Amino acid sequence: MPLFEFAEFIRSRADAQGLSMTELARKTGISRQALYGILDGSSGQAKVSTLISLASALKVHPVVLFRHLLHQLELPKFSTTGAKYQFDASGFVTETVPDHSSVTTGQIFCKTWEIQNIGHVTWQNRKLLCVDRPASSPRIIDGVQPPLYSERCLTPLQTSIDIPETLPGDTVLLSVQFKAPSYPCSIISYWKMADEHGDICFPDSEGLSCLVRVVSM
Q1: What residues contact 122, with CB distance under 8 A and at least 6 apart?
Q2: Ranges for the HTH cro/C1-type domain (predicted)?
Q3: DSSP secondary structure string for all residues of 143-195
């Protein structure tokens, strides 16, 4: 995006909020001259903190503003190794229930991952799928019947969740509810992104996971 288009985006958002350039500068915490310097490029690259304040004044997410700004730059193209779609890439941001968190036997809990579209492909009609492999049938040892698989696995209450449309640069929160097994153990569940045909988008990547330590109450 040429610089004048970035400036037009700022002006159009300001108009939508009923703000003059003077009022926008005041809400951003900078001078009117500094604001015009950002718009025409004469002040060089603006500080991240200034852009965040500007986004807040315009009532847009900072990522949206950054994306518009970055479009004016000649960014290198790239491809993620093993991605199904060229220039598609996903990045992990943060999560709740970090690895090795403790849960109690039989507990139902919610795990949330935040991921970011760091590629150049819009995510549409995608899902997050559980890719856990079914365990082999338990063997009877010394006449003792081991617990059923359903009692010794980390059971997701849903094995597929829809991923909202996610533009390049945007982040998305994905949440799954799990039920802990009935027996103390450490256990993990694996998840990967799939397209509308059910094909894994990043087959060579580790994907997302939920690793917990199950303890008795």
Answers
A1: 165, 166, 167, 168
A2: 10-65
A3: TBPPPPGGGSS-EES-SEEEEPPB-TT-EEEEEEEEE--SS-EEEEEEEEEE-
H or E segment at 4?
helix 3-16
Say if CB 40 and CB 8 are below 8 A apart. Answer: no
In the chain the domains, ranked by start, together with CATH numbers, are: 3-70 (1.10.260.40), 90-215 (2.60.40.10)
* Amino acid code (one letter) for 110: C
Tokens 């990522």 — which residue? 63
pLDDT, one tens digit for every residue, the chain (217 residues): 345 577 888 888 899 889 999 999 999 999 988 888 888 877 666 788 888 899 889 888 777 777 777 665 544 444 455 789 988 988 888 899 999 999 999 999 999 999 988 888 999 999 999 999 765 444 444 554 445 555 568 899 999 999 999 998 888 999 999 999 988 888 999 999 999 999 999 998 889 999 999 998 7
Is this model's pTM higher than 0.90 or not?
no
Q: What is the DSSP string of 30-60?
A: S-HHHHHHHHHSTT-SPPHHHHHHHHHHHTS
Residue written as tokens 């990045």? 91
For residue 126, list its beta bridge partners: 163
Are 115 and 93 a contacting pair, CB within 8 Å?
yes
